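My main concern about presentation is that the manuscript never shows what a single data entry looks like. Each protein is reduced to its one-letter sequence and a matching series of backbone shape codes. For the editor and my fellow referees, an illustration may be useful. For illustration, here is how one protein appears when written out as sequence plus structure tokens:
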Amino acid sequence: MEQVAGDYVAQVSYQGVRMFFPLGSPYDRQLLADHMKACSQRQSEIEVEIGEQRWVLHRRGSGRSHCPDCGGSLATSCATRSRSRHVCVRCAIEDSAAGMSSPPAGQLTS
């Protein structure tokens, strides 16, 4: 996991671009979720690495499917390469943050 000055960060990669986002607060994680959703409109595949987990972001079109964790829309979803279960962007970020040795406090808002 990348650390910058003691803060945990997420690495977002697509088409030769690599960006780092802090995960230290609920606001930071909301910005990451918003960025991921916006990128999914322009990129076919986006990889997000948070801690030990690597997620692949998929644009699924309509929001008719629902996240198995929170019930939110899966118009944009995340799945790890090792499992086919898709969750929403918010749940993927929270799941990864919860798995860190010192998880940041707080939850994302919808």
In short: The two ends are 26 Å apart (CA to CA). The CA atoms of residues 40 and 59 lie 6 Å apart. Helices lie at 26-40, 89-98.
